[in-house]
Amino acid sequence: MRIRSRKDNPYRTEQFQRIPVDDEFPVGVPDFNTRDEHPDIGPHIHDLLEIGYCFDGSGLFLIGDKIFTFKGGDAVVINTHEVHIARGSPGDTTSWGFLHLDPVRLLADNVGSYSDSLKLSQYCGAAFKNIIDGDEHPEITNCIRQILVEVRDRPKNYRAMVRSLTWRLMLLLNRYYNVNEAIDALQDYQDIERIVPALRFLNDNYSADVDMAKLAELCFTSESNFRKLFHRAMGCAPQPYLLRLRLNAACTLLKNSTTSILEIAQRCGYNNLSNFNRQFKERFGVSPRDYRNGRPEPQRQEPG
């Protein structure tokens, strides 16, 4: 019998990605892409700050142990410390633009008295909301979109413009994110790395019944040890994380489609509508119908 190796595992950890940049202008090549609900890239991490702008579509962004919904007009900021992956809503495609850059080196000659704005370590952890809502903070999301377009089109003096826009972005982020809030200690990447195959499997299959033994097998460990590893890396057990994933996916469909609530429940792994309604209201404080109608916006509670 052939013994399955780590190389055979389609959900194995993506490699740490080093982004080649010019020392004089440490900004990568922009990536404008369109993807469906099954991303062609697994959970990954970079050695540079990543910014992105969603031009169209909706879906979920998994960043570290956080799960965010996104829609067209939103932006994302991801530090070098957080493993991440995005996926579109079921049946939907998303169009994003992404860019990697090193703001510290890019702006090194003009730091002056605003050096606190370049403390990139503050833009990660549980307190930082990586997805920036375009309706709430258009000044930030538009700034990110402008940076992407400048680097893509390279008009006259685009490097000077990108530096100017990056300074504006750093100052706006510093204003948007209250640096006086407690900043969680950075998670050990090695803890998350051990369970990335399971995270990718959950991302691809959250609507199906999930077997803990299967997740443990993907991570090449026992089921009991897998549960310990998962809790240590994500701060909760696998089942509450799966519940959060399903309900956030339901939020995206409720806000960005006309699909019936019953079908949304089924797409998100619920065979019983009343069970879906109950769990949705327990987590968000409103029913799925009221959430769709915008009365009121839900208060998100992370399961322990």
Automatic annotation (TrEMBL):
UniProt protein name: AraC family transcriptional regulator
Keywords, alphabetical: DNA-binding, Transcription, Transcription regulation
SUPFAM superfamilies xref list: Homeodomain-like, Regulatory protein AraC
Superkingdom of the organism of origin: Bacteria
One GO MF term attached to the UniProt entry: DNA-binding transcription factor activity
Pfam family, one: AraC_binding
Residues covered by the HTH araC/xylS-type domain: 196-294
InterPro entries: AraC-bd, Homeodomain-like_sf, HTH-like, HTH_AraC, HTH_AraC-typ_CS, RmlC-like_jellyroll, Tscrpt_reg_AraC-type_HTH
